[in-house]
Amino acid sequence: MANQPTGALRLHADPRSSSSLRVLCYLRHKALAVTLVPVRLGEGEHRSAHFLALNPAAAVPVLELPDGQALTQSLAILEYLEALHPQPPLLPAESLAAARVRSLCALVAADLHPVTNMRVRRAVAQAAGDDAATAWVRDFTLQGLAAVEAAAARHGGAFSVGDAPTLADFFVAPALFNARRFGVGLDPFPALQRVQAACLALPAFEPLR
Ligand SMILES: N[C@@H](CCC(=O)N[C@@H](CS)C(=O)NCC(=O)O)C(=O)O
User: Fold this and answer.
1) What is the pTM of this model?
2) Mind listing the pLDDT tens digit of every residue in the chain (209 residues)?
3) Residue 127 CB: number of other CB atoms within 10 A?
4) Ligand 1 mutation pick, 17, 39, 112, 115, max ligand atoms within 8 A of CB
5) Other Cβ atoms closer than 10 A to 40
6) Structural domains in the chain?
7) Is 149 helix (H, G, I), strand (E, B) or coil?
8) Rounded to the nearest whole angstrom, what is the distance from the C-alpha of residue 59 to the centroid of ligand 1?
9) If you measure from the C-alpha of residue 94 to the centroid of ligand 1, how many angstroms do you get, rounded to a whole number?
């Protein structure tokens, strides 16, 4: 393919961060080789001059292409890889189904995740204390998951859209992993419990177990 550089992909990621896990699980699902370059968020490595040269937005993941070009934003990374490696397909060919998939990706990546991200948790903790930050994250996680649950209950089957994995599951499953980290249970979310079970049964999602 004309726009597909040959050679090794490098993924700059913190393997415990949910945005990184979206890409890591996807690469496993497609059996794509990648070199992991660890970026320890807890150590502030994403704010180093070296990393900022790669991603001025100071966030992981970053996919470094064989020619050295950097690609940021997990959804853009997955759509790029999906265009190059369409088998097995994770984006339905039918437009409405594809829009449902992208809608769920956005519910996680654009709505839920930004308000619970590390920099926001830290800012709330600094302004109002650790307990307030914990309450903040749990509250926004519950609100975000309620929206994802509603979408999965309407359009999902075994997975979050339909009965086969799609890109949406690579956003939803890491969000459920985060919910567990934050002490948010899935009891109110039966559709998400079903999606989680289906994802965790696949080898691709082993990093979330
Ligand atoms: N929308 C971005 C989000 C990237 C992002 O915020 N990643 C988090 C880790 S899950 C991060 O690097 N946080 C660092 C911080 O908040 O300072 C994506 O989908 O890639």
Assistant:
1) 0.97
2) 445 556 789 999 999 999 999 999 999 999 999 999 999 999 999 999 999 999 999 999 999 999 999 999 999 999 999 999 999 999 999 999 999 999 999 999 999 999 999 999 999 999 999 999 999 999 999 999 999 999 999 999 999 999 999 999 999 999 999 999 999 999 999 999 999 999 999 999 999 99
3) 9
4) 17
5) 13
6) 9-84 (3.40.30.10), 95-208 (1.20.1050.10)
7) helix
8) 4
9) 30
